[in-house]
Amino acid sequence: MAADLSRRGFLGAVGGALAGAALAGAGGAFAAGGGTATGTVTRDKLGVQLWSCLAEWVTSGPATLDVIAGLGYSYVEFAFGYGGFTDGFASGGVGATAKSFRKALDDAGLWCNGGHGTSAFPYDDKAWKQYVEDNLVIGTRYLGANATLPATKNECLKYVDAVHKAHDVARRMGHKGSLFNHLEASSWVKSDVPGKWGVELILERTTPDVWNPELDLDHAYQPLGTVDEVLRYIRKYPGRWEQFHMKDGLPNIPEPDGTWVQGAPAEFGTGVFGLPDPADPQNRPHDGFQKALTAIRETQPWPKVLLIAESDQSMATCVDYTTLAYQGLNGLTFPYRRRGTGG
Fold first, then answer.
1. What is the pLDDT of residue 81?
2. Of 248, 297, 296, nearest in space to 275 by CA
3. Rounded to whole angstroms, what are the CA distances from 185 to 7, 8, 65?
4. Is residue 286 part of a domain?
5. Pairing of β 36-40 and β 46-49
6. The total number of structural domains that make up the chain
């Protein structure tokens, strides 16, 4: 819990045509006769947010990447710089360059989806162009950030203008991917538009080729209150969630007035997304994760979907949470209804 609070405090300091297309039980997304199927999580979808092993990452990036590759993961998402290099760099620490990071990725047989780096808002031309240049060297698919999103409509409109400008600059420089922002619990803030979260105002004014939010399951559960509410928002915005932090957490604690105290982090498989459902006759071992995968498979572009392990709690090594997450997710099956076109 202390690690989680520390992280949020630190991050807080550094800080649409598809919108509103709600699905009723996902039925609206499928033509008659689509049928049901069983999906399986494959290794190519599994990655690690390097915050999960931050102590190792800032000490030796190459060694950390070797460990992650050895666990079976296919890619990483960087956090706070491009890793530490204790050998070959006089300064050591997190002073590694994008070029050094790319070499370490290649040596480990990994790739990088993106990272928690420079935000497009507020837009800073010099900082943004340097960030794009770094990402071109690293070979990322997406340009990521981890800034707290605005809540008022006026500030959300400024955010939208900034990400469109940043996207145009990145395209001119040669980056072909979209932008994303990881959603901490603090980014789920009610806007000054009744019934809307701030992130929804941004979703409604952007398209998936420009910007998308990265959904953190536990950091969405904490403010939304229930697993079902998290699933509702996955379904509410089809085609807008491609990257997911597969994170577990302990249950929120209800208060007499109907509010709740947000739950603490939990190791993979021990929280609201990982525990089996006692009502499920199959006693599936990761029922909440499977329900999330069903919602994702039925409403999002599955070939593009990335499932990223991240722990808020244990950051000392890469062999605790990340091992449990890989063992729990790799090969995990889940039911879904086929699209009418056979997808």
1. 83
2. 248
3. 12, 9, 28
4. yes
5. unpaired
6. 1
